[in-house]
């Protein structure tokens, strides 16, 4: 019996309401391993239940049009990342490919002829399968720009068509699930117009991440927010489009599929060095503030470098744009916090977009050492703000087997959040019995003595609390949720 036949049979007994699935795609970078002290980030720092997809950045393209690693230990880090799927089998991992080689995108050379495209596609698919990735993310900033000729706009579409065809054939040959294809795309109207055949590429990719950040930065003569939701009354000229609302509106009006568009959420802020006594939005500025102690890049602070300020300076709120900023001495930083993430998540849900994309996990307080709100305070909050994926309503009692099969079937048919721990790893203290439950215990599932409808999962000493589906209770005999 096929999955569709089984679903039809089960539908006779059950009414199922399916809500559009939501992706939470999170990037990690292979250069974050070189940050000092508590800023060092490795795949082992990733909560395997936090995101639906984790994208490893970055791989590149060699001069002979082969996919290639960048860091000396990429293959080791690939394995560490993909081992997380042994803990959470629903997690999807992807490899981002692109960046710059000697200041130029390697895609320019690669897409130039059918032969070079074919060479790359063949090598990429073999490489992804070898290292057990579930898909590839294309990082080309941007076709038709930065040394890329205007005709690359059409060549990019052609490349995606050939890549999509190859992916489908690969799935048949390997008898595996087709590889996922995604792309990071611009949020700037002028760039979008000259880089993409929007309707065509939207139909060829599984999802597109709008880089809805870097709208303003130290390159501007006045302060402006990194990732504003809406236009400011101070914006004039082309700057009126430098906001999330304008970017998404333009992608949709150009023919993009709403359910394939992901909104980019930055876990960092852009800084300015104030040049007068003015401190508000639009205040005169002259270059970037000093680099942060961990990210070490002028004009740029990670959230974990920003959040300690929240207890010592006033956090200002830009009502028009639904985002915060802060001033410390002459440094001005526009960043995102949990309040702005909530506003953006509610807004994307109202448009039925495909979900959210985070740049990056290693900029959030991944260790919980800086913000004192647990690990990943921003991304965890975003996940909660995005909401659930589907609701199952049973109209009448049915057989236990059919219910369990339906749950399993829906999980296999629809992409979305994996079974979500209702809590995330927290610092272990003797005063918190839930957080300390897994201390000293082997990884695995355990009953919750105080609530039979929930159970604990222990992973690397962290405690995750899961809740069974309505009407079921946890059974330690089968390590599963069962009927009472």
TrEMBL record:
GO terms for biological process: polysaccharide catabolic process. Keywords: Carbohydrate metabolism, Chitin-binding, Disulfide bond, Polysaccharide degradation, Signal. Residues 435-484 form the Chitin-binding type-2 domain. Residues 1-21 form the signal peptide. It holds the Pfam family Glyco_hydro_18. The keyword Signal applies. InterPro entries: Chitin-bd_dom, Chitinase_II/V-like_cat, Glyco_hydro18_cat, Glycosyl_Hydrlase_18. It comes from the Eukaryota. Residues 22-389 form the GH18 domain. The gene is chia.1. One of its GO terms (molecular function) is chitin binding. GO terms for cellular component: extracellular region. This is Chitinase, acidic.1 isoform X1.
């Amino acid at each position: 019996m096929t999955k569709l036949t089984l679903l039809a049979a089960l539908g006779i007994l059950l009414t199922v309401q399916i809500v559009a699935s939501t992706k939470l795609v999170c990037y990690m970078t292979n250069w974050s391993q070189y940050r000092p002290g508590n800023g060092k980030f490795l795949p082992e720092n990733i909560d395997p239940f936090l995101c639906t997809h984790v994208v490893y950045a970055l791989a590149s393209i060699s001069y002979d049009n082969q996919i290639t690693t960048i860091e000396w230990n990429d293959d080791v880090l690939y394995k560490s990342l993909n081992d997380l799927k042994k803990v959470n089998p629903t997690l999807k991992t992807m490899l981002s490919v692109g960046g710059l080689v000697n200041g130029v995108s390697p895609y320019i050379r690669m897409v130039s002829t059918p032969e070079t495209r074919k060479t790359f596609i063949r090598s990429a698919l073999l490489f992804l399968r070898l290292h057990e990735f579930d898909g590839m993310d294309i990082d080309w900033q941007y076709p038709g720009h930065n040394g890329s000729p205007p005709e690359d706009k059409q060549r990019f579409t052609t490349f995606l068509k050939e890549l999509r065809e190859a992916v489908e054939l690969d799935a048949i040959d390997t008898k595996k699930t087709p590889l996922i294809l995604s792309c990071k795309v611009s949020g700037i109207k002028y760039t979008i117009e000259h880089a993409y055949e929007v309707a065509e590429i939207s139909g060829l990719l599984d999802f597109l991440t709008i880089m809805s950040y870097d709208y303003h930065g130290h390159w501007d003569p006045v302060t402006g927010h990194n990732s504003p939701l809406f236009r400011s009354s101070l914006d004039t000229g082309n700057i009126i489009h430098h906001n999330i609302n304008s970017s998404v509106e333009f992608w949709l009006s150009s023919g993009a599929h709403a359910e394939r568009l992901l909104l980019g959420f930055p876990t960092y802020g852009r800084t300015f060095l104030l040049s007068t006594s003015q401190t508000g939005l639009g205040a005169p500025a002259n270059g970037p503030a000093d680099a942060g102690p961990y990210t070490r890049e002028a004009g740029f602070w990670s959230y974990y470098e920003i959040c300690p300020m929240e207890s010592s300076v006033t956090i200002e709120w830009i009502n028009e744009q639904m985002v915060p900023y802060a001033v410390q001495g002459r440094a001005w930083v526009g960043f995102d916090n949990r309040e702005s993430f909530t506003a953006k998540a509610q807004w994307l849900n109202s448009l039925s977009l495909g979900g959210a994309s985070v740049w990056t996990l290693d900029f959030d307080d991944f260790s919980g050492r800086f913000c004192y709100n647990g690990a990943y305070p921003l991304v965890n909050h975003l996940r909660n703000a995005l909401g659930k994926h589907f609701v199952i309503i049973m109209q009448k009692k049915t057989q236990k087997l059919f219910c369990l099969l339906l749950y399993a079937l829906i999980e296999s048919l629809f992409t979305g959040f994996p079974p979500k721990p209702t809590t995330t790893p927290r610092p272990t203290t003797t005063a918190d019995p839930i957080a300390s439950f897994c201390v000293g215990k082997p990884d695995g599932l355990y009953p919750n003595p105080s609530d039979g409808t929930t159970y604990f999962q222990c992973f690397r000493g962290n405690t995750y609390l899961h809740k069974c589906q309505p009407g079921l209770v946890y059974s330690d005999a089968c390590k599963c949720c069962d009927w009472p």
